[in-house]
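Need a sequence for this fold. Nothing fancy.
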């Protein structure tokens, strides 16, 4: 709740029972953080933390494998692990940890201090269970080494976008009215929150780099360094979004041409200064030649030239450039039906595969268009085997309810990460982003956090932040299991009851209510908004609420082509834009075939008559009516279920969610009415179930 902080460590771990003791062994900044966390918990619940092995019994041992000598319980666990798994699998590895409970002692071992920190949070997740049953050694290591959140935060308030572009959780954590916010305690809490789900990188400013923000690279670098200092103890490296035109706008050079010697020198010098100031600086994020941002096209160069320019400057310091593949023409001639925005990223980037330097990460939005509630997976992900690819997700709910609607996104992300672009026997998206030994581009999310007391505006949107980190670490995890973890970490029994069995019962009731509301909430949202993968029926500009034709006759390239006979975008090779041909055969054949194309994506790939029969047996028009009535009804049902949570959660949190659900119900009804009316008028086809559709 606002103004308080949750109990981070389970009381069970630190209650002074008998000889309860915690041992933290090892060196390095992050080991100090682990120690401080443990010490803080002990101060709160009792118990003692030791830094050196003594001849005493321990309940919790947190140690680096390099600590000499390892205390008995830790050595036993390490020996058992090594004897049961042969090399090379018997190493723990970077950021990984080994947990076990043997002979009444819970142990976490890691090769590096980041692993120790993540192991500590694993114990937190386990709660009491970490200290009850015996457990054999279990190794946990991240699938993706890069787990990053991009903040679309402006330093100055932007006249249209405000302090945070597409932010729905108040102001920025970092900036206010053109200056650093100065509340580093809050940034520290944020770092801790991110470490709890193992996010290890952030960028601190908007990808649309305006004049003030551009200065973070040079004159205002000290502001970035101050943030980096606070994030460092939690293992988080800072990145900056930079403008490709910086050599001109900041360096007063006549050009930003990536092949110009003066330009290369400018970036090299500036980058050296960055690393003098922030030695563990992560690197640059670049949006170029997109939606008005400058880029290499102005100089007749391509995006490999552009990305390599910055990569060259960062390389001596171990930095990376996150170069975004979100490049398209937002001033298309909408009357020319052969142009297709969905094609753009693949058209621009696939031919460049193999030309990027090793420290370039091409950051690809998960879908080919723009974070709609339903899109196919971007074909770029399968098209660039010689390039490090990161998959970009939108944690901030721009197109999924703007943190006024409940929309738990982990099921969508899990589908994306599990998608196999080459067919059932090929690697999945998670394998591509993970790369060999985790060294792929990883997962990047656009942050949904702001200075709101609940961090994310809608308290239930916190689950998306948490799930993002967990899926970047372990992409095969069941979204419902992640939700359980989040529920356990967020709603402590202490807040819900007094005696233990009663508290447990209440927690379980709350858990059931939250699952009922959240598990299917993404599909509910999909049902009452744009149908069958067609996307973009939102109000132009702010993108909240329905406006079916809002973008239909504009230069943005996002059309549904509804007329009296049918709806959808023909993206086939035979008769349409040819986008479907950008996939490997396993999927291009599926998507192109009217018979095989999944219902969910039908209108993304095909223009069909309203009477077209789906796999579900329903017609397109009837499906549109049915899903919109069903989805809006499910929003009402979510509101009803939440009423049952009164008394189970903090009253102010309950009130906040109640208000937001009222807005979701209103807005879902508006979507239902506008979409059903629109399609009824276009098609003239009545609802076979006779529900009221206004004319
Ligand atoms: C779109 C947002 C816009 C962002 C853009 C991006 O509407 O505000 O600048 O994505 O990803 O979804 O750069």
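Here you go.
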């Amino acid at each position: 709740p606002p103004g308080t902080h949750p109990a981070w460590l389970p009381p069970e771990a630190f209650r002074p029972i008998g000889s309860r003791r915690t041992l933290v062994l090892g060196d390095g900044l992050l080991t100090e953080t682990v120690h401080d966390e443990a010490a803080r918990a002990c101060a709160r619940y009792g118990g003692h933390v030791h830094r050196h092995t003594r001849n005493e019994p321990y309940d919790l041992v947190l140690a680096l494998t390099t600590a000499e000598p390892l205390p008995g319980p830790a050595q036993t666990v390490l020996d058992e692990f090594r004897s049961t798994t042969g090399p090379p699998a018997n190493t723990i590895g970077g950021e990984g940890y080994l947990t076990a409970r043997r002979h009444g002692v819970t142990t976490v071992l890691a090769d590096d201090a980041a692993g120790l920190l993540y192991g500590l949070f694993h114990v937190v997740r386990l709660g009491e269970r970490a200290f009850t049953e015996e457990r054999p050694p279990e190794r946990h290591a991240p699938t993706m080494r890069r787990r990053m959140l991009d903040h679309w935060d402006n330093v100055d308030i932007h006249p249209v976008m405000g302090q945070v572009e597409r932010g729905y959780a108040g102001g920025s954590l970092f900036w206010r009215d053109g200056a650093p916010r100065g509340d580093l305690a809050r940034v520290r809490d944020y770092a801790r929150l991110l470490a709890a789900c193992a996010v290890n990188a952030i960028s601190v400013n908007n990808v649309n780099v305006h004049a003030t923000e551009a200065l973070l690279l040079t004159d205002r670098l000290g502001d970035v360094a101050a943030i980096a200092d606070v994030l460092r103890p939690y293992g988080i490296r800072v990145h900056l979004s930079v403008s490709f035109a910086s050599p001109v706008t900041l360096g007063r050079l006549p050009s930003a041409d990536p092949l110009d010697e003066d330009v290369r020198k400018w970036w090299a010098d500036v980058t050296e200064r960055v690393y003098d100031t922030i030695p563990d600086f992560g690197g640059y994020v670049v949006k170029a030649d997109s939606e008005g941002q400058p880029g290499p096209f102005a100089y007749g160069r391509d995006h490999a030239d552009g990305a390599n320019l910055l990569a060259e400057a960062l390389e001596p310091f171990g930095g990376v450039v996150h170069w975004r593949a979100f490049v398209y023409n937002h001033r298309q001639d909408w009357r020319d039906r052969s142009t297709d925005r969905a094609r753009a990223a693949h058209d621009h980037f696939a031919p460049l595969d193999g030309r990027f330097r090793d420290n370039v990460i091409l950051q690809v939005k998960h879908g080919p268009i723009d974070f709609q509630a339903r899109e196919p997976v971007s074909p770029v992900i399968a098209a660039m085997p010689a390039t490090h690819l990161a998959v970009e997700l939108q944690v901030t709910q721009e197109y999924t309810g703007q943190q006024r609607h409940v929309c738990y996104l982990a099921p969508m992300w899990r589908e994306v990460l599990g998608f196999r672009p080459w067919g059932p026997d090929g690697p999945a998206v998670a394998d591509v982003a993970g790369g060999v030994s985790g060294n792929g581009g990883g997962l990047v999310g656009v942050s949904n956090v702001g200075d709101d007391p609940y961090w994310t505006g809608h308290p239930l949107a916190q689950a998306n932040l948490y799930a993002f980190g967990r899926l970047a670490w372990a992409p095969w995890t069941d979204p419902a299991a992640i939700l359980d973890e989040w529920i356990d970490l967020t709603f402590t029994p202490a807040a819900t009851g007094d005696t233990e069995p009663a508290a447990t019962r209440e927690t379980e009731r709350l858990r059931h209510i939250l699952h009922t509301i959240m598990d299917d909430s993404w599909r509910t949202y999909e049902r009452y908004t744009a149908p069958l993968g067609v996307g973009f029926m939102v109000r132009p500009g702010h993108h909240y609420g329905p406006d079916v034709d809002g973008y239909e006759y504009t230069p943005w390239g996002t059309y549904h082509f509804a007329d009296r006979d049918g709806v959808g975008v023909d993206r086939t090779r035979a008769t349409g834009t040819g986008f479907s041909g950008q996939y490997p055969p396993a999927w291009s054949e599926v998507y192109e075939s009217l018979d095989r194309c999944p219902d969910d994506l039908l209108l993304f790939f095909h223009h069909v008559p309203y009477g077209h029969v789906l796999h579900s047996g329903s017609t397109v028009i009837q499906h549109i009516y049915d899903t919109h009535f069903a989805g809006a009804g499910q929003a009402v049902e979510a509101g009803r279920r939440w009423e049952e949570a009164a008394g189970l959660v903090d009253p102010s949190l309950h009130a906040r969610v109640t208000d937001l659900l009222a807005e979701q119900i209103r807005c879902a009804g508006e979507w239902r009415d506008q979409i059903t009316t629109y399609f009824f008028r276009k098609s003239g086809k009545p609802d076979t179930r006779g529900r009221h559709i206004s004319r």
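For context: The first helix runs from residue 11 to 14.
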